[in-house]
Amino acid sequence: MASGVLDWLRRADPRAKQAPTPRAVARRSITVGGRDLPLVIRKLGHARRMTLRLAPDGSEARVSIPAWGRVGDAEAFARDRAEWLASQLARLPEARAIEPQSSLPYRGETLHIQWQERARRKPEVCAGELRIGGPVEGLPTRLQRWLEAEALRLCADDLAHYCARAGEAVPRLSLSRAQRRWGSCAADGSIRMNWRLVMAPDFVRQSVVAHEVAHMKHFDHSPAFHAHLGGLYEGDIDAANRWLKRHGRSLYVLFG
Question: What's the pTM value of the predicted model, to 2 decimals?
Answer without folding.
Answer: 0.73
